[in-house]
Amino acid sequence: MNEDRQALLHLLELVTKEDKHLLAVRRRLLDDDCRVTEERLVAILDTDIGIDRLESFGAKFGRMQDTVIDKLVPALLRSAGETTSAAIDNLNRMERLGLVRSVDEWLQMRRLRNRLVHEYLDEPGTLAPVLERACHFTDRMHEDFQAINEYATTHLLDG
Amino acid sequence: MPGTESKLKHESGADPQAQIIREEVANVFGPETEVRLFGSRLDDTRQGGDIDLYIEAPGDAGELLDRELALHARLQRRLGEQRIDIVVHGRGQQLRPVDRHAQETGVRL
Questions:
Q1: What ipTM was assigned to the predicted interfaces of this complex?
Q2: Residues on chain A bordering chain B, Cβ-to-Cβ distance under 8 angstroms
Q3: Which of A93, A124, A130, A136 could cross-link to A41 by cystine, CB 3.0-4.6 Å?
Q4: What are the backbone angles phi and psi of residue B46, rounded to the nearest 5°?
Q5: pLDDT per residue over A96-114, tens digit each?
């Protein structure tokens, strides 16, 4: 197996773990119910374990994005014999290949991640919708990664 | 409009980046929306720096967040990989220190 394929395989394994851990912390934090009202968030922030889970969710939400956008996508494009470029151009190519559903959504996720990490915990009214959308985008990230994983396994790593 | 021109980018008097920002703010927040540039891009002695934008608009926190995310994605696509930060102040909401700072120091685009 050549170097590009080895790197791709390693990254697919890494993101599989990140995806699993992100979904798991989301379940612990929100019980997979993405409706986050201000009252619900205040209740989460009222306990140390709630605060820890929220911070863990934000960190994992950001980490998976970083790995996918900065590492996995370039590795996949290289393995497919394509040249790689700036992150937005790479994402555009992935969208054309049908491997991410929407570049805009990935750009929105990136923005959301910054909001999630930097939002003040003492402004639950502002943070609640940020968390709610991050919860939904976690599904999208999961689905897009499934598509990427399947494509890579079938077309790039087979044989 | 003299005096209200931005110093977003030094390469051109027509300031294509400011034009793009105005267009996309109008697309996402509506044509009457004012947008201000504040922060490091206003500093003539510094090249580049983040693009810090300030927008005041009506709506609840969820609506404003969706618009902010949409605007950010559109600007990132059209302006390329540079740091863009958008502060949205919900009209009628209490002013945060960052809102006050942007209102006092920002330049209308």
A1: 0.89
A2: 86-88, 103-104, 107-108, 111-112, 115, 125-126, 128-130, 132-133
A3: A124
A4: -110, 135
A5: 999 999 999 999 999 999 8
